[in-house]
Amino acid sequence: MPYALFYQDAKLSKAYPTEADVWKLAQKSGLVVDAISEEETSVPRPVLDNDYEIRPCQLDPNEDPDKNKADADREARLEPRLNS
């Protein structure tokens, strides 16, 4: 089942083959923050900011999640990287 990024009931991203693919997109877009629970031994864990959700979705007509992932991977390889 394909997954996408949603805000309320609005689908914000293309469909991707896995939930992990959408997490990568959200991270790259700056929508992932580290949350710390009240427990002293807890480690920060990534969560989506501002009520965004990743959930299963219906495909739009002629949409191919595998092609969307391949396109996103290709774009990521072509982007210039900043050295720290």
How would you describe this protein?
By secondary structure, the protein is α+β, with helices and mostly antiparallel strands. It has one domain (3-78). Helices cover 29% and strands 24% of the residues. The chain has two helices and five strands; from the N terminus they run E-E-H-E-E-E-H. The chain has helices at 19-28, 65-78, and strands spanning 3-7, 10-11, 32-35, 45-48, 52-56. A three-stranded antiparallel beta sheet has the order 2-1-5, covered by helices on one side. Strands 3-4 form a two-stranded antiparallel sheet. Strand 1 (3-7) and strand 2 (10-11) form a beta hairpin. The radius of gyration is 15 Å and the shape is globular. The mean pLDDT is 88. Residues 64-84 have a biased composition (Basic and acidic residues). Residues 49-84 are annotated as: Disordered.
This entry's quaternary arrangement is single chain
Terminal Cα separation, in Å? Answer: 38 Å
SS summary, helix count: 2
Q: Provide the gyration radius in Å.
A: 15 Å
- Summarize the amount of helix as a percent range: 25-40%
pLDDT < 50 stretches: none
How many separate domains make up the residues?
A: 1
CA-based shape: globular
Biased composition (Basic and acidic residues): 64-84
Region (Disordered): 49-84
Topology:
Elements: E1 3-7, E2 10-11, H1 19-28, E3 32-35, E4 45-48, E5 52-56, H2 65-78
Antiparallel strand pairs: 1-2, 1-5, 3-4
Keywords:
84 residues; alpha+beta; three-stranded antiparallel sheet; 5 strands; globular
